[in-house]
Specification:
Keywords: Phosphoprotein. The chain is of the alpha/beta class. It has helices at 2-11, 13-26, 37-57, 71-87, 91-99, 102-113, 117-160, 182-199, 216-231, 243-252, 264-274; strands at 165-168, 171-177, 203-210, 235-239, 259-261, 278-281, 288-291. Helix content is 62%, strand content 12%. The protein is rod-shaped.
């Protein structure tokens, strides 16, 4: 298997490449034009070279691609799969990069072996084993790459969705939107504690207007955040508890053990009062101003 396939790839690489590119485009392996033709040709040419060298080296191989002979092939396919995952290719489109090579290779095998049906079947089967493993390998790498991308995006969204806002000197606000889970609570806590240190904050207002529901688990996450803030020397005020959430918390027996206000404005007014400030209307500008 290794000898004849490597010989075919060495003697007819140009023809195989041309037929492969046609089959690749027909199978949707270009992702609807998301990859440039020049880049695609370069990837295909490098893959054929790596595959030929691997087959020539693993002459007595049983078709297992996990050996040292296929190391360069695996690395190349891993790069192709990761780049396609980043470009939004589907697993099928990515796997087509390998599977579409079957047609030109099998056609060339039939031409080389003539009427030797038994050998054609045997060589085709062994080639299928190698290409199927390589195709599945691209799918595995693609799936892992997509999972890594999604996890990174979720982490970035979690950070963006938990901004710590400086309302006044020594007063911070943390508006929460969406559901609190363990992973997000960790991000919230880290952002809040770092901001308390950076700003020297005395009071942190945790606004849960955008939290759809508060159950026992969410309450526990809030309490952890509040306890951590207190350890850093900042008092906490919870705002945005809607009537429905208040009823649910009473029904569940959830106690936050912290001062709460119905709105962020009320919480801010209380925070100003605690820090010895008052809000008055300026007669000159007709606007509100804080007075120490």
């Amino acid at each position: 298997m290794a000898t004849i396939l490597s010989s075919i790839l060495e003697a007819h690489d140009g023809e195989v490449l041309a037929q492969w590119l046609v089959a690749l485009k027909a199978s949707g392996g270009t992702g609807g034009g998301r990859i440039k033709e020049g880049e695609l040709q370069t990837q295909c040419r490098h893959f054929l070279d790596a595959l030929r060298q691997a087959l020539a080296t693993a002459k007595n191989s049983d078709g297992n691609i996990q050996g040292a002979a296929f190391e360069d092939v695996r690395e190349l396919l891993a790069d192709v799969s990761r780049s396609r995952a980043a470009q939004g290719f589907s697993p099928t489109e990515t796997a087509s990069f390998v599977f579409s090579l079957k047609q030109p290779l099998f056609e060339r095998l039939r031409q080389e072996l003539g009427g030797d049906t038994a050998r054609i079947v045997d060589e085709s089967w062994q080639a299928t084993q190698v290409l199927d493993q390589l195709g599945l390998y691209t799918t595995e790498i693609h799936q892992k790459s997509r999972e890594d991308i999604v996890a990174r995006q979720q982490a970035e969204i979690a950070e963006l969705s938990t901004p710590v806002v400086k309302l006044w000197h020594g007063i911070l606000a943390l508006p929460l939107i969406g559901t609190l889970d363990s992973a997000r609570t960790q991000v919230v806590m880290e952002n809040l504690l770092q901001s308390i240190v950076d700003q020297g904050a005395e009071i942190a207002i945790i606004d849960i207007t955008g939290v759809p529901t508060v159950d026992t688990l969410v309450a526990q996450h809030l309490l952890k955040t509040i306890a951590a803030a207190r350890l850093m020397g900042a008092d906490c005020i919870v705002s945005g508890i809607r009537p429905q959430i208040a009823q649910t918390m009473v029904h569940l027996g959830v106690e936050l053990n912290v001062v709460s206000k119905a709105s962020l404005a009320d919480a801010f007014a209380l925070a100003l009062q605690r820090t010895g400030r008052t809000v008055v209307r300026s007669k000159l500008a007709g606007t509100l101003a804080a007075r120490t």
